[in-house]
Amino acid sequence: MAVTYELVKRCSKTGARAGRLHTPHGTFDTPIFMPVGTQASVKAMSPEELIGMGADIILSNTYHLFLRPGHELVAEAGGLHSFMNWKRGILTDSGGFQVFSLGPLRKITEEGVTFRSHIDGSKQFLSPEKATEVQMALGADIIMAFDECVPYPADYDYAKASTDRTTRWAERCLAAHNRKDQALFGIVQGGMYKDLRTRSAQELVSLGFPGYAIGGLSVGEPKPLMYEMLEHTVPQLPEGKARYLMGVGTPDCLVEGVMHGVDMFDCVFPTRVARNGTVMTNKGRLVIKNAEYARDLNPIDEECGCYACQNFSRAYIRHLFKAEEIFGLRLATIHNLYFLLSFMKKMRQAILEDNFLAFRDEFWAGWERR
Amino acid sequence: MAVTYELVKRCSKTGARAGRLHTPHGTFDTPIFMPVGTQASVKAMSPEELIGMGADIILSNTYHLFLRPGHELVAEAGGLHSFMNWKRGILTDSGGFQVFSLGPLRKITEEGVTFRSHIDGSKQFLSPEKATEVQMALGADIIMAFDECVPYPADYDYAKASTDRTTRWAERCLAAHNRKDQALFGIVQGGMYKDLRTRSAQELVSLGFPGYAIGGLSVGEPKPLMYEMLEHTVPQLPEGKARYLMGVGTPDCLVEGVMHGVDMFDCVFPTRVARNGTVMTNKGRLVIKNAEYARDLNPIDEECGCYACQNFSRAYIRHLFKAEEIFGLRLATIHNLYFLLSFMKKMRQAILEDNFLAFRDEFWAGWERR
Q1: What is the pLDDT at residue B280?
Q2: For residue A36, what are the contacts with CB-CB under 8 A and spacing of at least 6?
């Protein structure tokens, strides 16, 4: 197997675990957060900046790269790593989520999904086979099965039919996949129905993937419901394989995800809010454009070791945002990603010291005081 | 004198000269190009990137910083170097050019200029004393006298009256300036009239500035006329002082400026066109968004040693521009600035080898073949 998960330490009181993910582009500590580089670029960042903040594996997107610049070009360039000059790990999402998000612009059949490109309106088609072919051409270390992310809310019959189709599609992805140097992960669906989650997990596990994602969460449901689904689903996945919670990246959900035994996360949250001038600190979020920071010569976060906090003041970064200077959103992005990546490292350390529950209690005490 | 010019080598056939500019933030080789950081940021660049491409001194703007974030805040932060974390040289323009560009939004009297802010419409006032006070607060290594940039075309009487006022204002700037650790440069005006240029140069030189700028060129006049004015004006400036041609930054004008004995240049050109996807090469400009580069896996310029050319292909950079990814304009900006800064270094080397005229001939042969 090109990509394997190694369990290093289990929390004695919760499902949390510390591990290592071995890939063709390096071995990475888990739990891990993957910055999102949808279009073969983590927005506003250079590869060196990502490495400087401790990023190990980033996520890119099949739907976007299939439409532009096209997977053939990326393959010609030697694959995504070479195209974007990123030497560490890459995971590509299958495009399922994006295609289904197109709403009236797409049509689903058992064969696949016909849709109109958001770029030029052209008619396009993705299926389990095609999404796998595209991802083999892109050449990420980890690729994802082509699934339907069950929307929220969804009635039981819709969720059941969709989840069953996702399982059939997962089988077709496996059959289409033939690159030994990349791992194809299955995606557990099932909406907010525990029996469907169980069925999805069991069927995918029986297909034997090298890793499993939990999809269809963080799609608008209340957070306690998401946590309940996690608590129910994760234990049904094999201990020896990596578990990836898709689209999750706020500190509260990361803590709960880790507690329930998730190893991998991704989310546009830290980079997206950064570009709007919102930065994360241990004392809560801070809207850097606000007038209260106009003369504030302190760094965003005094405890932070990131490039932005080591070199620039809140007043300067606020000025850059007010003046619409690109360097402002670069600094905010660096800070937010560094903050989340450091947060993951702290959780891992707590697990290694078998201290995770105390870490979590302390986190929630601070989170709720805000 | 805090800032001094040291003549290192004179070209035996032209006015070109190689020198060194000594400032409180370092000694810099001339001729030199200064990247523009109007609002305390060279657009899209970090200080480390600027240093990596060989930038020694950058330009920032009094008008913009006076309005936002305000010179008092910058002074509180320890001055512009500290505020923007730039450890090498800074030159601030006086704001004269920007204020006069406001057209109907400004009113000129002998005392100064009343104008409306382009940001919030508020009524503002800049005078020789105020512009000098603001620049002392900003704390650049080199600051500029508050002048009127004579527009093109301008009739003789207007140009004469304006130039005489610029001289009176230059005297007031000198009287108001009292920071020993920064140099105040005078600005020669005179429009396109040689006798006015002579008069302006002589009067400013008699006031005894530590350096002289040539203003009011590259304002829409035909290039041969600009070169004629340079040929006429530069020889009237003292050999022992730095000469700065304001707002000039295309390769052809840089070559001619250097030939006529100019030491310093600035222009938004390389950074502005970069953000629109135009990159400079020895073989001419290249619009990276064009379809012809879609599958071009070569760097922007094979001879170039910049970060963009060492690490990324035309196809990738084109993709970033098409996908509106910020990293694309970062790469184009890095390339263009590196290109121009390297171009200056080559000219200096040619002067040191007393080979400048051959360098210029070769440059023009290539330029005209395009």
Answers
A1: 97
A2: A42, A58, A59, A60, A266, A267, A268, A271
Q: What is the pLDDT of residue B104?
A: 85
Distances (CA, A) of A87 to A24, A57, A332, B234, B311: 10, 9, 24, 52, 12
Nearest C-alpha in B relative to A79 = B316
Q: Can you give the C-alpha Rg of chain A in angstroms?
A: 20
- Confidence at B1, pLDDT banded by 50, 70, 90: low
Q: What is the DSSP string of B270-310?
A: HHHHHHTTEEEETTEEEETTSGGGTT--S-S-TT--SHHHH
pLDDT digits (tens, 9 = 90+) for A9-33: 999 999 999 999 999 999 999 999 9
Q: What is the pLDDT of residue A1?
A: 55
Q: Is B83 within 8 Å of chain A by CB? A: yes
B3's tokens: 């800032």
Q: What is the DSSP letter of A234?
A: G
Q: Please report which confidence band the pLDDT of residue B103 belongs to, taking 50, 70 and 90 as the band edges.
A: confident
Q: Which residues contact B106 (CB under 8 A, 6 or more apart)?
A: B99, B100, B113, B114, B115, B116
pLDDT digits (tens, 9 = 90+) for A298-322: 999 999 999 999 999 999 999 999 9
**Is A69 near chain B, with CB under 8 Å?**
yes
CB-count exposure of residue A215 (10 Å: 0-12, 13-18, 19+): buried
Strand pairing category for A113-116 and A123-126: antiparallel
pLDDT at B354: 98
Note whether A13 contacts B: Cβ–Cβ < 8 A.
no
Q: Is residue B113 over pLDDT 60?
A: yes
Answer yes or no: do B41 and A330 touch at CB < 8 A: no
What is the ipTM score, two decimals?
0.98
pLDDT in tens, A149-161: 999 999 999 999 9
B294 vs A contacts (CB less than 8 Å): 69, 73
User: For chain A, what is the mean pLDDT?
Assistant: 97
Closest C-alpha among A52, A31, A36, A55 to residue A359:
A31
pTM (whole model) above 0.95 = yes
CA distance A113 to A63: 12
d(CA B212, CA B234): 9
**Cα A322 from Cα A290, distance rounded (Å):** 10
* Dihedral-angle region of residue B327 (phi above 0 means left; psi in -120 to 50 means alpha; beta otherwise): alpha
Annotated catalytic residue A155: no
The share of chain B scoring above pLDDT 70, in percent, equals 99
In angstroms, the Cα distances linking A97 to A41, A57, A112 are: 19, 20, 13
Comparing C-alpha atoms, which of B94, B15, B45, B9 is closest to residue B262?
Answer: B15
Residues 6+ apart with CB under 8 A from A292: none
Give kind and range of the element (H or E) at residue A343: helix A326-352
Q: State the Cα–Cα distance between residues B172 and B164, nearest whole angstrom.
A: 13
**CB contact (8 A) between residue B323 and residue A41:** yes
Task: Tell me the nearest-neighbour CA distance from A49 into chain B, angstroms.
Answer: 11
Cβ distance A73 to B41 less than 8 Å, yes or no, reads no
Question: Between A and B, how many CB-CB pairs are < 8 A?
Answer: 105
**CA-CA-CA-CA torsion for A346, A349, A355, A357, nearest 10 degrees?**
40
Of the candidates A128, A144, A45, which has an alpha carbon nearest to the alpha carbon of residue A85? Answer: A45
| Residue A343 tokens, joined | 């947060």
Is B93 marked active-site? Answer: yes
Q: What is the pLDDT of residues B204-236, one digit of tens each?
A: 999 999 999 999 999 999 999 999 999 999 999
